[in-house]
Specification:
Layout lengths: L8 E2 L7 E2 L14 E6 L5 E6 L2 H17 L15 E3 L11 E3 H9 L3 H22 L4 H16 L8 H12 L14 H23 L1 H20 L2
Helix pairs in contact: 1-2, 1-3, 1-6, 2-3, 3-4, 4-5, 5-6, 6-7
Length: 235
C-alpha cells in the first residue's frame, strides 16, 4: 500500500536524531511502539513494524465476550486467528475468511471518537459473529446475515448490505417489547453479554430454523421484499 513521499528531517541539532511525519491514514498507531529495521541492498528499505500485541489482546477479549453471549446456543471455542484474515486496515472487499483489522481494535482501545469507535466495534463484532455462526453450523449465506444482525443489534450499525429483512426480524425477536438501545459503550463488559444472551438465543432459534428449512428463509425474504416493493410503490 503506497502512502506517498515523505522527507526525513532533523529533529534538532542537539539531539542528533531525524524524524519523518507519517500520513494521516496511520494516525491509529499513535503511542504504539514500533520496531525499526533496515533491509539493505540495491534498493534499501526502512521498515516500521508496529507492536500490535495490545490490539491482538483486544480481539481475544472480544471473542470471549461473544462466547459468553452465545453460551446457551453452543460452544464456539477459543479465538483462532486462522479463522480470519488479519490485517492492519479493514478491507473494502473480502472473500472466504472474515476480516479483522488491527486498526479497528486500536480505535476501540483509544476511543478516538464515539462514532469511529462504534463503527470499528461493529465491524469486529459482526465479523467475529460470522465466524461463530459458521462454527455453530450455519451456511455461508446465513452466517453472513447472522453476523450482520449481531453487529446491528448490539451497536446499531450494519456492516453488510442486503440483510435488511433478517435485521428487522431479529430486532423484534431480540428486544421484544423493549425499546432498542445499542450497547456499543459496554461490549467489553461480561454482564452486558450475559444479559444479551436470552435475546441472542431467540434470534439464533430463527436462524437455526432457516438452516433446517432453507426454503422457508427464501420464501420469507421474497414475501418481505414483495411487500416492501408494494409499500414503496404506493408512496
Amino acid at each position: 500500500m503506497y502512502f506517498g513521499n515523505r522527507r526525513i528531517r532533523s529533529a534538532g541539532r542537539a539531539s542528533g536524531s531525524v524524524e519523518v511525519t507519517l500520513p494521516p491514514q496511520l494516525h491509529g498507531l499513535q503511542e504504539i511502539t514500533c520496531r525499526l529495521m533496515l533491509r539493505d541492498g540495491t534498493h534499501p528499505e526502512i521498515v516500521l513494524q508496529p507492536d500490535l500485541s495490545t490490539a491482538h489482546t483486544l480481539l481475544i477479549q472480544l471473542w470471549q465476550k461473544l462466547r459468553i453471549g452465545l453460551v446457551n446456543i453452543g460452544e464456539i471455542g477459543d479465538f483462532d486467528p486462522s479463522t480470519f484474515t488479519l490485517a492492519l486496515f479493514p478491507p473494502r472487499h473480502w472473500q472466504q475468511r472474515p476480516p479483522l483489522a488491527y486498526a479497528d481494535a486500536l480505535t476501540v482501545l483509544h476511543k478516538t471518537t464515539t462514532d469511529e469507535s462504534h463503527e470499528a466495534l461493529a465491524r469486529l463484532t459482526g465479523y467475529m459473529a460470522i465466524a461463530a455462526g459458521q462454527r455453530l453450523g450455519l451456511s455461508e449465506a446465513l452466517a453472513l446475515a447472522f453476523g450482520d444482525t449481531i453487529a446491528y443489534l448490539l451497536t446499531g450499525i450494519a456492516i453488510l448490505a442486503g440483510t435488511e429483512f433478517e435485521r428487522g426480524l431479529a430486532t423484534r425477536l431480540f428486544w421484544e417489547q423493549r425499546t432498542p438501545a445499542p450497547l456499543a459503550n459496554s461490549l467489553l463488559d461480561d454482564l452486558v453479554w450475559q444479559q444479551a444472551g436470552p435475546g441472542l438465543s431467540r434470534v439464533w432459534e430463527q436462524f437455526d430454523a432457516w438452516q433446517s428449512a432453507p426454503q422457508s428463509h427464501t420464501a420469507a425474504r421474497q414475501n418481505w421484499y414483495r411487500a416492501l416493493t408494494v409499500e414503496m410503490g404506493s408512496v
